[in-house]
Specification:
Shape: globular
Low-confidence stretches: none
Oligomer: single chain
Helix content: 40-55%
Largest sheet: 2 strands, antiparallel
Order of helices and strands: HHHHEEHHH
Strand content: under 5%
CATH topology of one domain: Four Helix Bundle (Hemerythrin (Met), subunit A)
Radius of gyration: 16 Å
Number of strands: 2
Strand order of the largest sheet: 1-2
Distance between the termini: 38 Å
Length: 197
């Protein structure tokens, strides 16, 4: 992880573009997250964008106190407008150097600002892949975001406490595999996952 501010904008724009490429017919399709269909990944992305936007602003309250595991996320009829807007606001909030200092909260968990940013970047990188893989879209994450996600997940793996419902068991990936594949493996995902036929 780093306490040097990273622009979340490139990765939020990638995720917004992927979401724009999702058809209505794909909303019920399977994803690499066993409990989530495409619509649930989109709903999770919307919820985390709002929560981490407010965490960056230090605007703590209902959006930052809610446990994302309390309910299956979903999208409403206006998600195509709401998601890119929330992603843009998320990136803007973390452009303020103050977002990276002091304490903040997301998912009901208090954390240092730089940790909040690392979690947000990790979520954007991993769920961007989930969405791309589930909908058959190409995916190249922002390099700085990918480096941050890898460092965050590597630290979590080395601590040995995977948490309840946050990460699955590490999936072994060759040491010379691309950084994205190694990052996915650390998140508990199999980089070889493909859409069901």
């Amino acid at each position: 992880m780093t306490d040097t501010p990273i622009d979340l904008g490139p990765q939020t724009r990638i995720v917004a573009s992927l979401a724009d490429g999702v058809t209505d017919a794909q909303l019920a399709d399977a994803t690499p997250c066993p409990a989530y269909a495409v619509r649930h990944v989109l709903g999770h992305l919307l919820g985390l964008a709002v929560a981490f936007r407010d965490a960056g602003r230090k605007d703590l309250g209902v959006t930052t106190d809610s446990d994302p595991g309390d309910a299956l996320p979903d999208v409403g009829p206006a998600w195509r407008a709401e998601l890119p807007k929330a992603l843009g606001e998320l990136a803007e909030a973390w452009r303020d150097p103050a977002a990276w200092t002091g304490m903040t909260r997301a998912g009901g968990i208090d954390m240092p600002g730089e940790v909040g940013a690392a979690v947000a970047l990790d979520e954007l990188v991993i769920h961007g892949w989930d969405l791309a893989r589930a909908t058959g879209q190409p995916y190249t994450p922002d390099p700085a975001a990918l480096e941050s996600a890898h460092a965050f997940l590597l630290a979590a793996a080395e601590e040995g406490d995977r948490g309840e419902g946050i990460f699955g068991p590490v999936v072994p990936v060759p040491a010379d595999a691309p950084l994205l594949d190694r990052t996915l493996g650390l998140s508990g995902r199999d980089p070889r996952w493909t859409r069901p036929a």
